[in-house]
Amino acid sequence: MTRALLLENPHAIADEIFAKFGIEVTRVTGALSEDDLIDALEGVDYLGLRSKTEVTERVLRARPDLGWDLGETGGTIGVRMPDQPALLALLRTFGPMAVTSANLTGEPPATSITAAVSSFGSCVAAYLDAGPTESATASSIVSRRPAWSRAW
Questions:
Q1: Count of Cβ atoms closer than 10 Å to residue 39 Cβ
Q2: What is the largest CA-CA distance in the chain?
């Protein structure tokens, strides 16, 4: 049986989504220490958490088989920190999100709701319009090695 460990009370719909794929869910109300997380990950295939549990290098080394499913990443993970009040409020309410950028691969980034709708149309279920971005530069890309690091 495939198993998922969900920490820090993610939305209950996560259980329904995992159940559709036959994945057994174990929930832990709060955050776990590094040692407790390593122990709790025994036999777990998916880990879902909010923001207080730290997935350290030691945790990753203890569970190298724990997969990352962030869609097609090409072996990289992009971390974005918006500088827009509406998006910051959304993140404060719902926590970190694993999402795609607002453009198709190879296309310029959408800097307005009009550009986003033009690119994605009805493929996106909902759009958040907080006005156009203040800059045409959507984000900066930084390459960091080793693969696991933390930016403050």
A1: 11
A2: 48
